[in-house]
């Protein structure tokens, strides 16, 4: 999608209704369905994090950035994610966390990002994090500078590819709930994106599709 054309939809995105659990359920591992239907997982004083769902132009075409996390001793090792990280008291509000962490992880200065709206918070039981996603845009071309201590690669996903249902697959994964289970996922540039990131992507995809279709 041409980025200038995409910008015409931004005011509608800012006021769009969030489908929340309705969208999340499309990508939730089977073992979590019942707990979500009953009101969600039990939270044990979760840590807070925020991530940025950043849309920007590349050669005039709208893209979404994702990162490949480095391998480390932890539940999210080598996973595909949005730029973001843990809330710090200096942030004052969660949106500042998303801006600060995006700057630290992929080198985009906060002054070059515009927050459009918050999305539905997501609780992640394996790491006991409550993640607050934010939709943001850069209106100019982006030169990413990944932090090598946290990011092993950057994925620049064309919006048209993201909106295609052809990237939705079922994958066999080992989760915190069970081994070798089929989970709904996105297949993006050879990577399987599942779990919390897939659930957040699902809500973003539903909102974008709804706004685009309502304006036709």
Topology:
Elements: H1 3-7, H2 10-15, H3 21-24, H4 33-37, E1 47-58, E2 61-69, E3 80-81, E4 84-86, H5 94-106, E5 114-118, E6 122-124, E7 129-137, E8 151-158, H6 159-162, E9 168-173, E10 181-188, E11 191-193, H7 195-214
Parallel strand pairs: 1-7
Antiparallel strand pairs: 1-2, 1-4, 2-3, 2-8, 5-7, 6-7, 9-10, 10-11
Model description:
The mean pLDDT is 89. The strands form two sheets. Strands 1, 2, 3, 4, 5, 6, 7 and 8 form an eight-stranded mixed sheet that branches. The protein has a three-stranded antiparallel sheet with strand order 9-10-11. The protein is 26% helix and 31% strand. It has seven helices and eleven strands. A hairpin with a 2-residue loop joins strand 10 and strand 11. It is globular. The protein is an alpha+beta fold. The two termini are 14 Å apart.
The number of helices is 7
Distance between the termini: 14 Å
Q: What integer value in Å does the Rg equal?
A: 16 Å
Query: What is the number of E strands?
Result: 11
Mean pLDDT: 89
Biggest sheet character: 8 strands, mixed
Percentage beta strand = 25-35%
Identify low-pLDDT runs: none
Order of helices and strands: HHHHEEEEHEEEEHEEEH
In short:
The chain contains 7 helices and 11 strands. It is α+β, with helices and mostly antiparallel strands and 216 residues long. Strands 1, 2, 3, 4, 5, 6, 7 and 8 form an 8-stranded mixed sheet that branches.
Structural key phrases:
216 residues, alpha+beta, eight-stranded mixed sheet, three-stranded antiparallel sheet, globular
């Amino acid at each position: 999608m041409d980025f200038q054309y995409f910008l015409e939809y931004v005011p509608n995105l800012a006021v769009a209704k969030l489908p929340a659990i309705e969208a999340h359920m499309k990508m939730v591992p089977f073992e979590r369905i019942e707990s979500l239907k009953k009101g969600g997982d039990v939270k044990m004083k979760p840590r807070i994090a925020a991530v940025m769902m950043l849309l920007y132009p590349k050669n005039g075409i709208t893209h979404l950035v994702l990162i490949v996390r480095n391998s480390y001793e932890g539940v999210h090792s080598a996973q595909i994610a949005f730029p973001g990280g843990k809330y710090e008291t200096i942030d004052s509000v969660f949106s500042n966390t998303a801006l600060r962490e995006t700057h630290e992880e992929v080198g985009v200065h906060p002054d070059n990002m515009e927050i459009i709206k918050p999305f539905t918070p997501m609780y992640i039981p394996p790491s006991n994090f409550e993640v607050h996603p934010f939709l943001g845009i850069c209106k100019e071309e982006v030169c990413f500078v990944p932090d090598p201590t946290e990011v092993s690669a950057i994925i620049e996903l064309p919006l048209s590819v993201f909106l295609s249902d052809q990237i939705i697959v079922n994958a066999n994964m080992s989760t915190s709930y069970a081994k070798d289970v089929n989970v709904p996922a996105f297949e993006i540039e050879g990577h399987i994106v599942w779990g919390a990131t897939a659930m957040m992507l699902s809500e973003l995809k539903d909102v974008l599709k709804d706004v685009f279709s309502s304006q036709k």
